[in-house]
Amino acid sequence: MTKSQQPKGKKEKVKGMFNDIAFRYDFLNHFLSAGIDKRWRTKVRKHLAPFHPKEILDVATGTGDLAIELAKLHPEKITGIDIATGMLDIGKEKIGKKKLNDVIVLEEGDSENLRFNDGHFDAVTVAFGVRNFEDLEHGLSEMYRVLKPGGHVVVLEFSKPKKFPFRNIYNAYFKYILPTVGKMISKNDEAYTYLPESVQAFPEDKAFMNELKKAGFREAGQQRLTFGIATMYYGEK
Q: How many of the other CB atoms lie within 10 Å of CB of 14?
């Protein structure tokens, strides 16, 4: 089997998929979540506000929505990294239009092999990206490494509602409606089938908090949002 014939790893698969849907990503995010995703990002900002972070790293930044929201904290600098350059190109356009180029810098980067020095950032965030890590343990360890002592991590991720009847409605939506609409608008057969599959496979609640603790974070906690559709996890170095 030649190199080009070898099956792609998760990282390469994710990179190709998000590059393919970049042109419709923002529209689909807001449409398929009925705009609730904006409120979730506000929760992340409000969680970090009391700590006044000056340097923030936004991992798996995508098109920069969380970085743009965090700019309201008036930090000195936000660095957003992502492996999908198509997403970054759209993010850079948005940041330019909002005149945030002096605050937010987006660059290509691997979440599991961060180029930054130990103890560089006051806060590290990631929204809807950790479930895409090829090696979750290593990715979280890298986030811990680049945080300053006393720095804060916040992870926003999809989760599974537990209570009837919302759990059943959500499962039907994720299984049938989201993949159909996502495929129709993005023209990508895989992306919006991958989403529910990756959410199902993700270790949530105590299992994910244990992963944070394993990486070294203390005071690990969580807040489930909007009937448990998403969860905000947090911790401290």
A: 22
Percentage with pLDDT > 90 across the chain: 67
Distances 205 to 29, 142, 210, 211 between C-alpha atoms, Å: 23, 21, 9, 10
**Taking Cα atoms as reference points, which of 167, 161, 109 lies closest to residue 139?**
109
* Residue whose entry in the numeric block shows the structure tokens 């798996």: 60
CATH 3.40.50.150 fits 10-236, yes or no: yes
Q: Is the pLDDT of residue 5 over 60?
A: no
* Angle between helices 10-32 and 36-48 in degrees, nearest 10: 110
Give CA–CA dist 80/61, Å, rounded.
Answer: 5
Of the candidates 107, 135, 142, the residue with the CA atom closest to the CA atom of residue 10: 135
Q: What backbone torsions phi and psi does residue 35 show, to the nearest 5 degrees?
A: 80, 0
Calpha distance 118→145 (Å, rounded) = 5
Within 13 Å, how many C-alpha atoms sit on residue 48's CB side?
A: 34
Q: Which residues pair with 56 in a beta bridge?
A: 78, 123
Domain extents in the chain = 10-236
Percent of the chain predicted with pLDDT > 70? 94
